[in-house]
From TrEMBL:
Gene3D superfamilies tied to this protein: Nucleic acid-binding proteins
Origin species: Orientia tsutsugamushi
Family: Belongs to the bacterial ribosomal protein bS1 family.
GO cellular component, one term: cytosolic small ribosomal subunit
The name this protein goes by in its record: Small ribosomal subunit protein bS1
Positions of the S1 motif domain: 39-105, 123-190, 211-288, 305-375, 392-484
CDD domains cross-referenced by the UniProt entry: S1_RPS1_repeat_ec2_hs2
Transmembrane segments: none
Functional note: Binds mRNA; thus facilitating recognition of the initiation point. It is needed to translate mRNA with a short Shine-Dalgarno (SD) purine-rich sequence.
UniProt GO BP: translation
Length: 491
């Protein structure tokens, strides 16, 4: 943008002894009452000055009084002295108190307006000075013309906490809006800064390339990733803020539910540029790309049958995802959570962040899947039951359920605690008690030839009954019991 200095454009340096001043004197002497009209800018002579008012003679019956503050608007022009000629705007020939009403500010505004309009049209910058505070923003002196600077247009950082260092210094502004009828001008300092930063940003972007490793700070976190404020590389420091997007899939090699699990606002990070959109200036970043893909040599780090410990990262209806390594996680299906016969609800038996011991069941390198088991790290209650209730053992137990084909007896078995040493640390799974159903088939209740066809109706749920262990199948997790076999046993 072109920058225009309005003070050089229309405000002459005042010198009471200069040729210019002498010419003004000559012009002033030629002014007649007929030439002076309301709404025009005329030459006037300063005849008196006090602490608050400048009295100006424009060759009318009465002199005009102008607040001294209006002569301070053009900040780089000295206050006029008695005898100096100045441009003034005629508001009224004769006011209520009999004085002529004049304005220095409106004279400057009239002179400057066309130049300011041209600057706005061309997108040129204009010099100004922030000199006061008003509701919603600040006042700016544009070489004697007062403009409004909204608070939101002061800086690229909103809101700016302390504007004092920016006041009373000449700096460029962009004109946003002008209304000559209302006499309003709205300017922006922020637009100037953004344009300057955009130029510097383009220069910085030209130095960034795919594969470049950069340092940055986590600026904000959203559900799909994090925005990183890039500060430069080990060899290069950026002069302007440049942001890049670190998508959630590029944070770790393993899946994460939310970027906030791994990142915090203000955290210092090291990232690599994985993509640049030249048309938009958008930069795509990666963190996981700074380390090797763990799937490439997973056979060297994990083996089927390995027992590991990790935290529960997420829970679904069908199972739980567990951290295997920093960059890998596996799925423990609900059927492998424990030895209970019915598939457990993972949300009832596990919590996010819980540390668990697991066994690796399978590794699918091609599909990037690891299957885990929690139950295989616990003692098998069926093995304990087979040892406790050997074939031929007579037991007494409560009747838990009766069906049309037989009865189920409630058996109780407790497994011992087990300890594992993993990565130099000891982990213990405590003793557990299981309720296991033993089945008595209808054919094993009465001996062949017995006449009571309603044998099942002879029993009631909760009855304590005596029966014999007929068979235990650890693999199929079954135990068969019988009552009629007791007759031969007792004999």
């Amino acid at each position: 943008m072109t920058q225009i200095n309005l003070k050089q454009r229309f405000i002459p340096t005042i010198s009471s002894k200069s040729i210019v001043q002498d010419n003004f004197e000559e012009l002033f002497n030629k002014i007649t009452n007929e030439q002076i009209k309301v709404g025009t800018v005329v030459k006037g002579k300063v005849v008196e000055i006090d602490d608050e008012v400048v009295i100006v003679d424009i060759k009318l019956k009465n002199e005009g009084r102008i607040p001294l503050s209006e002569f301070k608007l053009a900040s780089d022009v000295p206050i006029p002295q008695i005898g100096d000629l100045v441009d003034v705007y005629v508001e009224k020939i004769e006011g209520r108190n009999g004085c002529t009403v004049l304005s220095r500010e409106k004279a400057l505004r009239e002179e400057a307006w066309s130049v300011l309009e041209e600057a706005q049209k061309n997108g040129s910058l204009v010099d100004g000075v922030i000199f006061g505070k008003v509701k919603g923003g600040f006042t700016v002196d544009l070489s004697g013309v007062v403009a409004f600077l909204p608070g939101s247009q002061v800086d690229v950082r909103r809101p700016i906490k302390n504007i004092t260092p920016l006041m009373n210094i000449v700096q460029p502004f962009q004109i946003l809006k002008m209304d000559k009828k209302l006499g309003n001008i709205v300017v922006s300092r922020r637009a100037v800064l953004e344009e300057a930063r955009a130029g510097i940003r383009q220069e910085v972007l030209s130095k960034i390339h795919v594969g470049m490793i950069l340092n940055g700070v986590v600026k904000s976190i959203v559900y799909y990733g994090a925005f990183i404020e890039l500060t430069g590389s080990d060899e290069l420091t950026f002069d302007v803020k440049v942001d890049g997007l670190l998508h959630s899939i590029n944070i770790l090699w393993r899946k994460i539910n939310h970027p906030g699990e791994e990142l915090q606002i203000g955290q210092q990070v090291r990232v690599v540029v994985i993509g640049i959109d030249i048309s938009t200036g958008q930069i795509s970043l990666g963190m996981k790309q700074l380390s090797a893909n763990p799937w490439d040599d997973i056979e060297n780090s994990l083996q089927i049958g390995d027992i590991k410990v990790g935290k529960v990262k997420s829970i679904a209806e069908y199972g739980a995802f567990i951290e295997v390594t920093k960059d890998l996680e596996g799925l423990c299906h609900s059927g492998h959570l424990g030895w209970e016969k019915i598939n457990q609800n993972p949300k009832k038996s596990l919590t996010i962040g819980q540390e668990v011991v697991f066994k690796i069941l399978d590794i699918d390198k091609e599909r990037h899947r690891i299957s885990l088991s929690l139950k295989l790290c616990k003692p098998n209650p069926w093995e304990v039951l087979a040892e406790k209730y050997q074939v031929g053992t007579v037991i007494r137990a409560p009747l838990r359920n009766i069906t049309n084909f037989g009865m189920f007896v409630a058996l109780s078995v407790t497994t011992n605690a087990v300890k594992y040493e993993i990565d130099g640390k000891e982990y213990e799974i405590g003793e557990m008690t299981y309720q296991i159903d033993g089945m008595i088939h209808e054919s094993d209740i009465l001996k062949h030839g017995d006449t009571n066809s309603n044998s099942l109706k002879n029993y009631t749920k909760g009855d304590e009954i005596e029966c014999m262990v007929l068979a235990v199948d650890v693999e199929k997790e079954r135990i068969n019991l019988g009552i009629k076999q007791l007759a031969d046993y007792k004999r």
